[in-house]
Amino acid sequence: MYIIPSLLCLNGRCIESAAEEPRVLCIVQDTTSSKTVNERLTLNLPASTTVNKLYEDVAHKAGYVNGTFCLGWVNTGDQVRAPLDQASEMSLVLSGFEAGKKNFLQLTDKDGEQPQIASDESGTADSSGLDDSSQDRFIGPLPRDGTVGCSSDYSSPSYSYSSILNKSDTGYVGLVNQAMTCYLNSLLQTLFMTPEFRNALYKWEFEDSEEDPVNSIPYQLQRLFVLLQTSKKRAIETTDVTRSFGWDSSEAWQQHDVQELCRVMFDALEQKWKQTEQADLINQLYQGKLKDYVRCLECGYESWRIDTYLDIPLVIRPFGASQAFGSVEEALQAFIQPETLDGPNQYFCERCKKKCDARKGLRFLHFPYLLTLQLKRFDFDYTTMHRIKLNDRMTFPEELDMSPFIDVEDEKSPQTESCTDSGAENEGSCHSDQMSNDFSTDDALDEGICLDNTSSTERVLKPKSSLTFELFSVMVHSGSAAGGHYYACIKSFSDSQWYSFNDQHVSKVSHSTNAYMLMYRLKDPSRNAKFLEVGDFPEHIKRLMQREKESEEQEKRQREIERNTCKIKLFGMHPVKMMMVENKLEVHKDKTLREATEMAYKLMDLEGVVPLDCCRLVKYDEFHEYLERSYEGEEDMPMGLLLGGVKSSYMFDLLLEIRRPDQVFQPYKPGEVMVKVHVVDLKSESIAAPVSVRAYLNQTITEFKQLIAQATGLCAETMRVILERCYNDLRLLSVPNKTLKAEGFFRSNKVFVESSDSTDHQAVFTDSVLWKLLDRHGNTIRLFVSLPEQSPGSLANRTSCPKASADSEDSLDGAKGSRKSVEAILEESTEKLKNLSLQQQQQQSSSTSDSQKSSEHSDFEHIESPAQEPDAASQPSQTENCTRAASDTENQFPSEERSDSDVNNDRSTSSVDSDILSSSHSSDTLCNADSGPLPLANGLDSHSITSSRRSKAHEGKKEKWDTTEEDSGTDSEYDENGKIKADSQYLYFKAEPYSQEDGSGEGQKCLLVHVDKRITLAAFKQNLEPFVGVPSTQFKVFRVYANNQEFESVRLNETLSSFSDDNKITIRLGRALKKGEYRVKVYQLLVNDPEPCKFLLDTVFAKGMTVRQSKEELLPQLKDQCKLDLSIDRFRLRKKTWKNPGTVFLDYHVYEEDINISSNWEVFLEVLEEPERMKSMSQLAVLTRRWCPAQMKLEAFREVVLESSSVEELKEKVYALPSCSATDLILLLLLQGRGTFPCDISVLEIHQDLDWNPKVSTLNVWPLYICDDGAVIFYRDSTEELIELSEEERNELMKKESSRLLKTGHRISYSPRKEKALKIYLDGGPTKDPGQD
Question: Which of 230, 437, 750, 1133 is most buried, taking the most CB atoms under 10 A from its CB?
């Protein structure tokens, strides 16, 4: 009894003795921090080492506490696969490690937390001799006492991190960079580290009834801050915050300026907080006031206004200066430094009633509690006309005294405030984000920022004022004006320690470079707040914190479940669907094999079809279709142990094997090889479906024959065994004592066996009938051929094969009358599973005729019909005999070029050529005396069984795709009459009709063809003649692809080797190409139509034909098919390149001599309003179009024929045009780079955006390069002025132009692409313009 095969599992290698035990080399990459990501740990362990011991060794070598990290595999894409189970007692070899090879692992965070550092009991001191406390004291801006460090510490040319600390040490959580959101992360961390802002945000309570929480910016910021304060994760996502901004995923790839974001976010918060307690929070914390004044120098009269500001923009390098300001204080002094208005810039004084010299400037009236300074590092270089970044060195103090910059008198004076925002200038912007987790330590270009090194002694001598601000945040831009990366250095008000918040990495930091934005807080003990502790949270924040904690715990549990879930690819042959089914099985590692089998049973929908105890899971190799092993006695073992660890990437295959109730499962042992044995019957020329046999590689051929004899019942003494090592590579296993391994057996193998008493045993294998049958078997493909509906003949009355149809119909009728029982279906499914025929097509309830075939590696398994009577099986059918082709037949067919042409057009494939039946072509009978079957000694004929090795004329001939212009209707294999010059070569061909329902109740006429794919297209067409009913020269062959596109095959000398099983072919009536002929697609050129290219028809041009002759042949076709009644002198043919018109073809030009022509050629037909003016190749035909700027319109195209390439002649011809009355013209060529014909351009662009009046005297030089017909030239009257449009008129015209150009497939653009503006949408997101692409 045969058991339904399945799939198998683990590698069961045994551990050798300790002396010979192999070693396993493990290379571990620590990815838990930016400092260690480039480090590798190497361990060389015995193969018997367990996985939990591996964890201990890695923990010891890395200095981590065991159990606080995970180890996982690394694949070729550097992505972590399944983590290794730390509790596993399995050896490294059984867990998938390879001895003697490098095994790459990754050390990652566990549950989102960094590994814990093991305590260092040695007490090693730092080389500096300072204890930890002293080192902590000097991290950040250095103290002013001058005892430790010096000014050079601040201006070091490279950024220096202190050692990267764990999350638990810093106590802070990072933010994940979505793509280019580093600017957002820097600002959010700064706001989070601002006690007054954080506390005020916590006091605000979200009302569910007022707004959707998803769109509430304050609520999402509140959630984010709670997570930053309480989460145990290393970093958290900001997607909820950006979603509340109304941003989609594309915004994550837009980098913006951090100062611009600060302004936009504050505006959005003010809008959201209206009529709440926090309505004026932004103004209370960040808003200051300044006076913008002008003072007359003659009378002292001063006019002024009061403006508010949220930040102060400070110039780093004054305009026109080469020296930058050295400090923030200097830049602030320059900010309030007045300028003198004199000369032409004098100020009109209201008191003096005349223009006077005056001073204009700014004075600070009030500084905010939180002072924001923007250092304007981005500038524009008017020499190079590029944006630049200023990396000049500028110091900024840790404590900034703003009292010298305040105007005390003005602050006391009465004020009439006109609230305008004078700080809106935004010059800093970047376009790309480095998205780097590691900070560069070599950024010399970004240097230039250091803290003020004023000594503490000087500070003591200076009296303290009430306007002293302390620095707490430095937002840094690293990079250039073209792009870069933002991060923030922030001082904690809790411990006065400076930290670097670089996306998801948070670490202690000593100092920073290239500051872009500084934040100071006023030193006022009465106002300086401390962070709210968790216990002091308002009740609504406590509830929010509890919800987030529960969500985080749920996410952690889900991750744990995911980490312990085995993801398996499950296969199985469904006994009802009769096809191999693939599913994804997910099972917890602690589930037993028995439970997993029940899950797979339900997943495969087998309940009520087969009993559960008739199913089992076995290890399977899908690629080799190989059953690796079964799991006898391991039904209660957990899947995690059974599979050698958690398999989490669907890279592990199992098969659900099914048996009949009266069968017993066959054990599959590791180390066995599987062999698919096909029994060959020489008498019936049939090859049976495969039978699975399992063997060992060390078995001999004699022992292997005994195994096959037991499985098939054949005689081992007379058995011939042929191994197919690869496609069509057959090897006779004739050495009895040779092992299977020596013969080249692998995990999955395919052999053919034959055991008979025929004399074929005595023949040389390559000359034997067995070899010829197997050769035919390996090269035969099955094709579905659709016949033309209006075929002149029918299958019933064709004289070439009168009995074929009747026999086939009888076979079909007999098959339809038989219905299979349930037992038969189960039996058949059992056999299919046993044979692992994964590519078997779905079985129908009715069996087909003798063409039924089993697909095993696309092989033709059954050549004879299983529905035939036994005595008829050995007799070739008359259809088969009558249609077997000899390559040297007397039929005449031209050698043509075969090309899978452009996408088939309905006009070119559906019409029947008018000369099909009228043309006289010789049509020889296929079944004649000269080409009749040649009998062989074993009863076969030379048509059905042939040599698989092609004749010398065919050897070494390469197959070509139908794309070249060579071999145009000629090939050395054919003589002038189309006969094949090669030796007589008989290739297998067998066809039979079948009906395919088209949905209307009527079946389309189709053929099921089995043919040797080494047959040429010419011979294939010749064999189809009796079925089509016309000679092969009168029908065309189209190959149908998966998307139902049809491509014509016309190269008769090429074989069908590019075809494969079940390809579809459509036969269409129509004259096939003769030698030297080319199929041509004709398009009409309509230069002034919206769609200038219109398909007309398909036609045929021949080598040696003149253009006039082709025009004469086109005239009746144009009239009949296109309703175009033309005279031969009122249309021309011209070159077509994509949609662009080219060279005009003159009547005397000859194809392939003067005009290069190829298969599937395309040509333009242009109707002329007057007789042809092009008479010589020296002439040049260009298309001109007038631009009328006063009317904002383009006139129609007009053709100008030039005798030379002179610009002056072109002007003269343009002057002569009916629409031209100008005396002075400027010419413009629209270059090829602007698009295809008709080179459409917006009327809003053409006048100013293009380069008019090129300084050339001839057209064939730069920048025009007009050397061929069809060039497009715009011209205009240079005296005609451009009309002035109002904004409303311009907008209306813009809409019309956009609609016009979109309809014609041309894109409109009015200016170079601008940077995307930063916006926060308060209504949930932007609304797209319907006309926007």
Answer: 1133
Q: Is 1267 a catalytic residue?
A: no
Q: One of 9, 182, 296, 349 is an active-site residue; which one?
A: 182
Is-catalytic flag, 505?
Answer: no
Torsion of CA 1052, 1053, 1056, 1058, to 10 degrees: -110
Alpha-carbon distance values, 428 to 253, 286, 312 (Å): 18, 20, 13
Contacts 24+ apart (CB under 8 A), 1079-1082: 1079/901, 1079/908, 1079/1048, 1079/1050, 1079/1159, 1079/1160, 1079/1161, 1080/1157, 1080/1161, 1080/1162, 1080/1163, 1081/902, 1081/905, 1081/908, 1081/1160, 1081/1161, 1081/1162, 1081/1163, 1082/1114, 1082/1162, 1082/1163, 1082/1165
DSSP string for 538-570: -HHHHHHHHHHHHHHHHHHHHHHHHHTEEEEEE
Catalytic residue among 256, 477, 485, 1149: 485
User: Mean pLDDT throughout 1065-1073?
Assistant: 87
Question: How do strand 370-376 and strand 515-522 relate by DSSP bridges?
Answer: antiparallel
Give the orientation angle of helix 539-563 with respect to helix 217-230, to 10 degrees.
70
Question: What percent of the chain has pLDDT above 90?
Answer: 33
Coil vs helix vs strand at 1146: coil
418 versus 1149: which is more confidently predicted?
A: 1149
Tell me the CA end-to-end span of the chain in Å, nearest whole number: 66
pLDDT per position as a tens digit, 110-145: 876 778 887 644 333 333 333 333 333 322 333 333
CA distance 429 to 413: 39
Query: With contact defined as beta carbons under 8 Å apart, do 454 and 146 qualify?
Result: no
Other Cβ atoms less than 10 A from the Cβ of 742: the count is 13
Measured from the Cβ of residue 1236, the count of other Cβ atoms closer than 10 Å reads: 15
Structure tokens at 766: 């390559």
Tokens of 1283: 């009309």
CA neighbor of 363 nearest in space, from 325, 324, 413: 413
Whether residue 917 is predicted with pLDDT greater than 80 in this model: the reply is no
Task: Tell me how far apart the alpha carbons of residues 859 and 837 are, in angstroms, rounded to a whole number.
Answer: 11
Structure confidence at residue 886 as a pLDDT band (50, 70, 90)? very low
Q: Which residue has the higher pLDDT, 1184 or 963?
A: 1184
> What is the pLDDT, as a whole number, of residue 334?
92
Whole-model pTM over 0.70: no
Residue 1191 has, within 13 A of its CA and on its CB side, a CA count of 8
Report yes or no: 591 and 638 within 8 Å, Cβ to Cβ: yes
Determine contact, residues 487/446, Cβ cutoff 8 Å.
no
387 DSSP β-pair partners: 380
Asked if residue 808 lies in contact with residue 879, where contact means CB atoms within 8 angstroms, the answer is yes
Please report which confidence band the pLDDT of residue 14 belongs to, taking 50, 70 and 90 as the band edges: very low
Gap between the Cα atoms of 445 and 639, Å rounded: 57
Identify the CA nearest to 429 among candidates 385, 486, 362, 350: 486
Q: Which two tokens stand for residue 36?
A: 């260690």
Question: CA-to-CA distance for 657 and 614, rounded, in angstroms?
Answer: 8
Q: Peptide bond before 1263: cis, by omega within 30 degrees of 0?
A: yes
- 1167 confidence band (pLDDT: 50, 70, 90): very high
What integer pLDDT is reported at residue 255 of this predicted model? Answer: 82
Give the DSSP letter string of 1063-1123.
EEEEEEESPPP-TTEEEEEEEEE-TTSSS-EEEEEEEEEETT-BHHHHHHHHHHHHHHHH-
Least confident of 905-919, 1057-1071, 1240-1254: 905-919
Residue 446 has φ and ψ, to the nearest 5°, of -95, 10
CA 1177 vs. chain centroid, Å, equals 48
